[in-house]
Design a protein that fits this description.
Blueprint: H1 6-22, H2 28-35, H3 39-51, E1 55-58, E2 62-65
Antiparallel strand pairs: 1-2
């Protein structure tokens, strides 16, 4: 398992926090608002997190964190 960059870790933590508090995966928009970055930037970081095998997509909306 590869190490995440600071921004990737921020996205990972935002997803984990939202899932814990709300019970479901946040949208890219919500993550972006939480971090003060664009949805596009969130999508790029999320793709890299998945490539590093720290998370995986389940269906089209749910993210399972490792």
């Amino acid at each position: 398992m590869q190490t995440l960059t600071k921004q990737q870790q921020g996205v990972y933590d935002a997803i984990a926090k939202h899932q814990q508090e709300q019970g479901y995966t946040p949208t890219l928009r919500v993550i972006g608002e939480m971090m003060g970055i664009s949805q596009f930037t969130v999508a790029v970081h999320l793709r890299l997190i998945i490539e590093k095998e720290r998370a995986r997509r389940i269906g089209t909306r749910h993210i399972e964190l490792s």
